[in-house]
Every structure is written in structure tokens, then in C-alpha cells.
Design a protein that fits this description.
Layout lengths: L1 H35 L3 H11 L12 H17 L2 E2 L7 E11 L4 E4 L2 E3 L6 E2 L5 E9 L5 H5 L7 E5 L10 H18 L4 E5 L2 H16 L1 E3 L14 E4 L4 H4 L4 E7 L1 E15 L10 E7 L4 E6 L2 E4 L2 H20 L5 E7 L7 H8 L8 E7 L9 E5 L9 H15 L2 E2 L18 H6 L4 E5 L18 H20 L15
Parallel strand pairs: 6-7, 7-8, 8-10, 13-16, 13-17, 17-20, 18-19
Antiparallel strand pairs: 1-12, 2-9, 2-12, 3-4, 3-11, 5-10, 6-11, 12-16, 14-15, 18-20
């Protein structure tokens, strides 16, 4: 009698228990199968293709970047990912504006005719016309400056100084040049000429190709403005002997031009399986551009960017394969940002004009340079306050690392007083500024950063594979938990 009376009830309970048990087992098996889709052989093959010489360093705003972007989109289509860009395509095109010094500009010091971008660099592409006597003031100490009338003169000085602990030497160098130049101009100088010392010469050889390119921004941005200012010129150490000679004339005519280039974000998705949660997105972020073809170093003029950031791209492609094999409850969104090296332009543009509602993006997991340094070390950017904007998201990544990935996590590079300011230099930043939970996975800087030596042969593809699985499993957790990860209250960056 009891059984008959409650038969339907117990039958329903049995069905419910079975439903809860069976999918749990198959769900775990499916996830394991998806993780297995992330293979080192795929990552290595894709890395050598994307970072090989064929794409010539994928410079943002160039045909090479567009060719590489088409290649990435073809791979995503072949994996079974759906287009999520504009007009039913994998692409979201946007314009970047470049302002540069023209070839008609002239720079003469005494009998020496110098060319911007080769044997001299003008720090800012600003209109200028100066014809003035040159005075050399040594290292520009107060005592040295007190002996010379600099009003109406072009002032030359040798760079000196030691970077404080809170700044990298590169940031100290350029910051000091600009600050001291402004002080000298305010005191009456018509131009400032910096001569490299031994330390500055290293950066003159390595970093000045960016000055040669000029400035980039989205149209209408602050870096697109053309203005007039007293020129600041940077010379190599080899000029010191003749720059000291008296009675030389400095003549500098700077003309500036500004024009637009196309760049592109590649956007793909794997729809979620839950009828409601599929309208929310876990965004896997990276960037496909690098520095392109530049001044040759040791006979190599292609700056391949294998670690920066082909490593992040091939990891993101592998994560796409995993989600294509087993979709999560929430949708997975994959954005390969263009023109990151030009100032995070692709991610800034996507945050302004997302192809899905911005409010539907529950988290951003960014892959930036993940293939170098010690095999067992890595770093999460956005882990520590004030950079942490989602404790939930950070804890999800830490839990996967503890249970699966087992990387020793660097805790210094994410701190606000780190001299490199690394948190502010990748594509998670615009999302964090828009209050979207965001973290970045990275294996940090190395000596080949932004040099032609950043080649595929130097990448630890096993490490890239491990970090790809770490990112995937973190995203899988976020995609399938009942509630979206939360945004920390009162999140505010230090700059």
C-alpha cells in the first residue's frame, strides 16, 4: 500500500538521481576529452606558421598583419568555430592613425647632415623650424648650465643618471629626456640634443625603431594631434667627440604627416549549451601583431614576435579546439586583437564597439607572451590589488594552477611598484578599465623581447601547451558555474 501510494514519487526521485549521476560522469569525461584537444604538436605547427618569416613580423596596420589575420580566421573556421565579427564574418576592421616625421625634414649640426630614423631620432613628431647656435653643456649639471647662456640656443648634453628602483632604465631614459628637455626649453633653449652614454646607447640601438615609426592611435585620439614644439633629438654615443666642437650651427626643419591604416580584430565563438547562460560570454583574448620588418640586427630584419605574441595566439587557437569539442554552458568568445603594439588599439576599439553586448562578457582571460623563461614559472596579471578586479576570477585561476598546472607564480611583476608597469601593457587592460573581470597569463619579459631574436625556435612549446590548458580549464570553470564571477567592490587602478 505504501509503495503504491508513493510509487510515482520514488520513481521521480530515482530518475532525478540518475540524471544527476550520469551527466556528471560523462561531463567530466567530455571535459577531459576537450583538454586532450590541446596538443603540443598543434601548438608547435601553428607557432612556426604564424611566427615564420612568411608573415614578416605581422606589423599592426600592414598588409602582413592582414594576411596573418586571414590565416588565423581560416584555422578557426576549420576547427568549427563560428564567426562573431561584423556582418557575419570573423573580422572587425578598424582604422589606426599614424603621425610621423616626413622625409622632407632636415637636420644639420655643423657640417654633419643627419637623417631621422637612421643616425638621429627626434623624440616626438611635432612641427618645428630651428636655426640656432649650438652649445654643449657637458652632462647639464647646474654648475655647467650656470656657465652658459642657453637662451636662443640649441643645447647639447650627454645623458647621465641612474634609474631609481621603481623605474626600468628604458622608462627612466625617455622620461628624463622629455622632462629635462622641457625644463631647458622653458629656460630659453630652442632645441635639445641628447648624446647617448654607454647605457643609453644600448637602448638607442634597440628601441629607436619605434621613434622612427612615429605615433599611433585610434582616429581622434590624443596621439593623433599635430602640434609645434621645440625639437628634442637623440644621437648615438659616437657623435660625442664632434658635438663638443664650438661655433657649430644647429638647423632643424621638421615636417609632419598623418594618415590612416586598416587593422583588424579576429572574432570567433563557440555557442554555449545552456538556454539562458549561452547569452553570456567568457572572452579569451590575445593579439596577433608584432613589429614587422625593421632595421636589421645581425643581418636579420624580420622581428618575428614568436613569443610576443604568436605564443598567445596559438594557445588561444588550441583553446578554441577544446571548446569546439565540448562547449560550455556559457558561450566562449575568442578575440585576436590587432595593433596591440601600437597602443592596445584593437582591444580599445573592441571595448568601445563590442560585437556582443559588453554587459554579457563575464570575464576576460588574456594570453600575452607565454613561451619563455623557466619551464615551471609563470605569472597572473590582475592577481594583486590594486590590479585585481575580480577575486572570483583570480581564485578560479589559482585553483586550476594548484590542482593541474603547478606553475610557480611570480608575485612581483603584477605589483604597482614594479619598474616595468607590466600590467598596463597588454589587452586585458581596456576590459578592466571598463569594469569587466580580467586577468592575463604571461611568462614575462626576456632578453629577446622586441628584437629579431624572438624566433619560433626559442619557444618552449611544452610550456605554451601547459599554459593553454591552464587558461582553458580556468575558462571552463567560469563558463559552467551557476553564477558569473563577481567584480570586486571599489576597484580602481593606480593610473
Amino acid at each position: 500500500m505504501f509503495y503504491r501510494k508513493h510509487h510515482k514519487f520514488w520513481q521521480a526521485v530515482a530518475i532525478l538521481l540518475l540524471a544527476l549521476y550520469v551527466p556528471k560522469s560523462s561531463w567530466a569525461q567530455s571535459k577531459a576529452s576537450a583538454v586532450a584537444a590541446i596538443t603540443e604538436s598543434d601548438i608547435k605547427r601553428d607557432l612556426f606558421a604564424l611566427a615564420g618569416d612568411h608573415f614578416r613580423g605581422r606589423e599592426g596596420g600592414s598588409l602582413d598583419e592582414l594576411k596573418a589575420s586571414v590565416w588565423i580566421a581560416d584555422q578557426l573556421r576549420a576547427m568549427g568555430l563560428q564567426p562573431a565579427g561584423d556582418d557575419g564574418t570573423f573580422f572587425q576592421f578598424f582604422h589606426i592613425q599614424r603621425t610621423r616625421i616626413t622625409e622632407t625634414s632636415r637636420l644639420n649640426i655643423g657640417t654633419h647632415q643627419l637623417t631621422h630614423g637612421q643616425d638621429a631620432f627626434i623624440l616626438a613628431p611635432a612641427i618645428a623650424s630651428v636655426d640656432a647656435p649650438l652649445v654643449f653643456v657637458g652632462k647639464g649639471t647646474p654648475d655647467e648650465l650656470a656657465k652658459v647662456d642657453i637662451k636662443g640656443k640649441a643645447v647639447a648634453l650627454e645623458f647621465s643618471g641612474t634609474a631609481p628602483a621603481e623605474l626600468s632604465y628604458r622608462r627612466f631614459l625617455l622620461g628624463t629626456m622629455n622632462r629635462r628637455a622641457a625644463e631647458l626649453v622653458k629656460a630659453g633653449a630652442l632645441a635639445v640634443i641628447w648624446v647617448s652614454n654607454a647605457d643609453a646607447q644600448f637602448y638607442f640601438d634597440r628601441w629607436t625603431t619605434g621613434l622612427e615609426r612615429g605615433r599611433y592611435d585610434l582616429p581622434g585620439g590624443t596621439n593623433t594631434r599635430v602640434f609645434s614644439q621645440a625639437p628634442t633629438v637623440w644621437l648615438p654615443a659616437s657623435t660625442l667627440d664632434w658635438i663638443k666642437q664650438p661655433n657649430q650651427q644647429f638647423t632643424n626643419v621638421v615636417n609632419v604627416e598623418s594618415f590612416n591604416y586598416p587593422s583588424v580584430n579576429i572574432v570567433a565563438k563557440v555557442p554555449g549549451t545552456d538556454p539562458t547562460l549561452k547569452n553570456e560570454y567568457v572572452l579569451f583574448s590575445t593579439h596577433q601583431d608584432h613589429d614587422g620588418v625593421r632595421r636589421a640586427v645581425a643581418g636579420d630584419s624580420i622581428w618575428n614576435g614568436a613569443d610576443d605574441n604568436a605564443s598567445g595566439c596559438v594557445a588561444t587557437m588550441a583553446i578554441g579546439r577544446a571548446f569546439a569539442r565540448k562547449p560550455g554552458k556559457r558561450s566562449a568568445l575568442f578575440v585576436f586583437h590587432g595593433a596591440e603594439e601600437r597602443g592596445l588599439l584593437g582591444s580599445r576599439y573592441y571595448v568601445e564597439k563590442p560585437t556582443v553586448p559588453r554587459s554579457s562578457i563575464v570575464a576576460v582571460l588574456n594570453a600575452e607572451m607565454i613561451g619563455r623563461n623557466a619551464a615551471d614559472s609563470a605569472c597572473i596579471l590582475g592577481q594583486h590589488p590594486p590590479h585585481r578586479n575580480s577575486t572570483d576570477l583570480v581564485n578560479a585561476a589559482l585553483a586550476v594552477n594548484q590542482s593541474e598546472s603547478h606553475f610557480k607564480l611570480d608575485t612581483l611583476w603584477d605589483k604597482p611598484d614594479h619598474p616595468e608597469g607590466w600590467y598596463f601593457r597588454s589587452d586585458h587592460l581596456p576590459y578592466a578599465r571598463a569594469n569587466v573581470p580580467a586577468i592575463a597569463f604571461t611568462s614575462l619579459l626576456h632578453p629577446d623581447y622586441h628584437t629579431p631574436k624572438d624566433e619560433p625556435e626559442r619557444i618552449n612549446t611544452s610550456k605554451v601547451t601547459r599554459i593553454a590548458k591552464w587558461i582553458y580549464l580556468t575558462g571552463w570553470d567560469v563558463a559552467n558555474r551557476p553564477q558569473r564571477v563577481g567584480l570586486d567592490k571599489d576597484f580602481k587602478l593606480e593610473r
